[in-house]
Design a protein that fits this description.
This protein has two domains: about 5-110, Rossmann fold; about 140-190. About 50% of the residues lie in helices and about 10% in strands. It is built from seven helices and five strands. Helix 1 links the parallel strand 1 (about 5-10) and strand 2. Helix 5 crosses helix 6. The termini are far apart. The model is unreliable at about 185-190 (pLDDT under 50). It comes from Pseudomonas antarctica. It holds the Pfam family Resolvase.
């Protein structure tokens, strides 16, 4: 079993020394680093660490937020490690998935993450239902109003093609085709 460290800072002005020192004291044999925002999905240091890790190894981070972009992403990464037989340890939060207590805590995190996603979905559905009850429709307003559609039909009858009509009316060709076919929402009055 090898302890493999991962440290990340967001900007060049920041230094990984605090993290790498803590990871070294924890016994990490090798430490991978990134200087990149946590919101960026492509992190070369993390990718290298993931490739380096072998079954029964443990990925160690100084704090949870150094690894995951969000709670959902963190859970996804740790679940991927678990599926490969690799443990996970966070020094600051004292979470260690190689112990039964650490696995329990992480499963609680997973349940909380799922609960948060469910609440967001419920609020979104409730908001859409309330808006629909007030007569509001979701989505963008149609680009092709009933007035523009009428003008487009007149111009087409005069022999212009759809591209020329769309250019004159300052609308997209696809939007005009959809409106002419009746696939758009009901055109609005302009």
């Amino acid at each position: 079993m090898a302890l493999i460290g991962y440290a990340r800072v967001s900007t060049e002005e920041q230094d990984t020394a605090l993290q790498t020192d803590a990871l070294g004291k924890a016994g990490c044999e090798r430490i991978f680093t990134d200087t990149i925002s946590g919101t960026i999905s492509e992190r070369p240091g993390l990718s290298s660490a993931m490739k380096f890790l072998r079954e029964n190894d443990v990925l160690v981070v100084w704090r949870l937020d150094r690894l995951g972009r969000s709670l959902a992403h963190l859970i996804e990464v740790v679940a991927g490690l678990d599926a490969r037989g690799i443990g996970f340890r966070s020094l600051t939060e004292a979470i260690d998935t190689t112990t039964s207590g650490g696995r329990l805590i992480f499963h609680v995190f997973g349940a909380l993450g799922q609960f948060e996603r469910d609440l967001i979905q419920e609020r979104t559905r409730a908001g859409l239902s309330a808006a629909a009850a007030r007569g509001r429709k979701g989505g963008r307003k149609p680009v092709v109003t009933s007035d523009k559609l009428q003008k487009a039909r007149t111009l087409l009858a005069q022999g212009l093609n759809v591209r020329e009509v769309a250019t004159r009316l300052k609308i997209g060709k696809t939007a005009l085709y959809n409106a002419l076919r009746g696939t758009d929402q009901e055109p609005q009055q302009s």
